[in-house]
Amino acid sequence: MLLQTNLKDVKIPFGDIMQIEIHKGQVELSGEPILTDINLNITTNSRIGLVGRNGSGKTTLLRLLGGELRLANTEGDGGFMAISGNPQIGTLSQMTFSDNSVTLVEEIRSAYDYILKLKAELDDAQTQMDATPNEDNIKRYTDLLDTFTRDGGFYFEKEYEAAIKKFGFTDTEKHRPLSEFSGGQRTKIAFLKLLLSKPDLLLLDEPTNHLDIEAVSWLEEYIKNYKKAVLIVSHDRMFLDNTVNEIYEIEHGKTTKYHGNYSQFIIKKRESRALQAKAYEAQQQEIARIQATADRFRYKATKAAMAQSKLKSIERMEKIDAPDAYDNRTFKATLEPSVQSAKEVLTVSNLTIGFDAPLATLSFNVYRGDRIGIIGGNGKGKSTLVKTLVGKMPALSGSFNTGALVNVGYFDQQMAQIKGQETVLDNMMSAFPHMNDFEARSALGAFLFSGEDVFKTIDMLSGGERVRLALCKLFRKSPNLLILDEPTNHMDIISKETLEDILTSYSGTLIFVSHDRYFVKKLATRLIAFESGGATVHDFGYDEFLLRQTNQDSPESTPTAKPERKEKKTYTTPLKEKQKRERALKKAEEKIAELELKLDELRQEQQSPENLADYQKLFELQNQIDVCEMQLLEQMEIWEELSE
């Protein structure tokens, strides 16, 4: 069944397997080309991460897949988009509320309409079977029970109850009507309903935005166990590492596919660029050598034919393109305190924070050079703490004092929401009245506001541009104590990495709130973790924090595991166990031999003369080798475990 094609009749057989393929796709908005060469393949169990700079076209590609846009290709250029299997494609924009008077839990339950209808049929079949236990009624009940079990009918209520809790909604809130929730909360409810409706393809655009760490961890586990396809646009590197096994990068309007998660993509991208550059340089040297030979003999009568032959060999050669330049534009800045603070930067004593009711009471000291990450769920008190420390909110009780020569620089997440008709240049100069035009332009240029960009009004700026403007002004003040509240919101990955590098080399003191676990992991040397009922100060970083959490959880799982193993042993014998292990060991050995043979064949093919000059073929072969090596490593681990 062919649902959507452009320009070309593509024959895809109908079946249970879902597939979406885009080949040489082009997309335009208002007549301007946004995507020029899109190649994408999505199948039933795909786990795809889509990455690229802000403005590269990631959301445009999602809109194309969601049916909002169509390809702009012209007849005959070979581009098409084809969909087989009649899949349901789920996007957040499709999630609307038809009745605002229903409660949160009723709205979430509507995602399970199919299961609820099946349950009603099953109850009816059971009633009929109990009344008339004939063969037809028993068969109907049994068939429905099998379907109900297979489709998760016995655990769907536990699933949505856990999801509602992890997304930060209380037992009281889940019985409130939708009309009583804020816009942000309604978006979270719609997102939750989208996830639990289980479409054949989930299209998720920045799904971790505005989710706390607990909700993100739940979402990761949900996607790992999701039985259908997922395509994720995200700037959360740890989230991509934990959920996807393919990366498509959009750069210069084109897609490039990489096997593996985000960290593996970074390595492979670097390797593939180096490989392409090497092949390009080798070919250019060969062309130069042939050209020099032809030039030398082309005017000699006895050698003219040979010279022409050499020139034609250059024409026939399939040219290798030079690698496109990295799209790594980012702000460039150094940050150093104008004056060094005292060793003791901040003293907090029995400080109770909150609004009408206390959220937490804390006592801790901050010393020069500390980098303290503040983590925890939404509404637990993270932003309240930093607002209290910078004097934006009063403390309920207790005290805090800054040390001598402490100069505080504060970044509020609301800075990305500033509005106004003031230009970027005027905004900068009003913050620093003694700065002249040249100095202001130079400072703004370091944060990618160059040329006519400085005359944009604040209202014209994107969220990421407003964050850059706020950081530009903050860094100009050269504080020795930086307090940052969600600084990486609205930043793409390269900008996040730039900020990480700046803050890593910063010699002052840093206190920051973040939901970006990768950012916290890289920067924090100490943590303040907010949980229900309070906050705890930890004198170690995020890796140690996760390790201790895991160790705390492990004793609870041990008692349930032991009885299962003992019970299993009563149904087998040592001889059967040995035979089973030997069969598995033999199977692993056969698979290892098969993979090693395949690796040899691929490497030989990679070294063949006709492929050495074909970069695209080399790249495809390298991807196959990477996959094969990964499979071989897995089989070796299985073999090792069985051998022991």
Named at the architecture level, the CATH assignment of the largest domain is 3-Layer(aba) Sandwich
What gap, in angstroms, lies between the N and C termini?
Answer: 50 Å
Strand order in the largest sheet: 5-6-7-3-8-9
CATH topology of the largest domain, which one?
A: Rossmann fold
Rg from Cα = 30 Å
Task: Give an account of the 3D structure.
It contains 20 helices and 18 strands. The chain has helices spanning 58-65, 104-109, 113-131, 135-150, 156-166, 183-197, 213-224, 237-243, 262-297, 304-316, 382-389, 424-431, 437-445, 463-476, 493-505, 517-523, 542-569, 574-607, 609-612, 615-643; strands at 19-29, 32-43, 47-51, 80-84, 89-90, 201-205, 229-233, 246-251, 254-259, 344-354, 358-367, 371-376, 397-402, 408-411, 481-485, 509-513, 526-531, 534-538. The longest helix has 36 residues, at 262-297. The chain is globular, with a radius of gyration of 30 Å.
Write the layout of secondary structure elements.
Layout (H helix, E strand, L loop, with lengths): L18 E11 L2 E12 L3 E5 L6 H8 L14 E5 L4 E2 L13 H6 L3 H19 L3 H16 L5 H11 L16 H15 L3 E5 L7 H12 L4 E5 L3 H7 L2 E6 L2 E6 L2 H36 L6 H13 L27 E11 L3 E10 L3 E6 L5 H8 L7 E6 L5 E4 L12 H8 L5 H9 L17 H14 L4 E5 L7 H13 L3 E5 L3 H7 L2 E6 L2 E5 L3 H28 L4 H34 L1 H4 L2 H29 L1
Parallel strand pairs: 3-7, 3-8, 5-6, 6-7, 12-16, 12-17, 14-15, 15-16
Antiparallel strand pairs: 1-2, 1-4, 8-9, 10-11, 10-13, 17-18
Helix pairs in contact: 3-4, 9-10, 12-13, 18-20
